Please model this.
Amino acid sequence: MSEAAEFRLCPLEEMPDPGARGFEFGEGRERTELVAVRAGADAAVFINACPHQGTPLETFPDRFLTRSGTRLLCSTHGAEFRLEDGLCVKGPCKGKSLQKVDSRLEKGILIARLDRDPD
Ligand code: FES
Model:
C-alpha cells in the first residue's frame, strides 16, 4: 500500500507565464525534486529527472524551457519534452516521458501530491 505526500509549491501567480520553476524538498532518500510548468491558468508538475539518465533537467536554477518557451529541455543532452504531459519528442529518450505528478490549485497555491511506497 502506498502513502501520499503533499508539497505546497508556490502561488501560481509567482511563476512566470509561460514559465517553469524547480522545487526541492527533503534530504537523503526522502529528497524530492520537482519541476512545475505554468501556461496561463494551467500548471503541470513533473519529477525533475530526465528519463535518459535520471539527472535533473536544468543546469542553472529555474532554466527549464527551450528558447521558444514551448518545451521543457534537458540541458545535459538536449532532450525536449511536451509541457502538457512530459512526453519526450526530441533527443536520446524520444518516446519516453517525464514522470507527471498529480497537482491542483488550492486558493491559488500550486500543490503537488506524490504516492510513495513505504519501506
Ligand atoms: S540526461 Fe537528459 S537528455 Fe541525457
In short: The chain has one domain: 3-113. The mean pLDDT is 94. Residues 3-113 form a domain with the Rieske Iron-sulfur Protein fold (CATH 2.102.10.10).
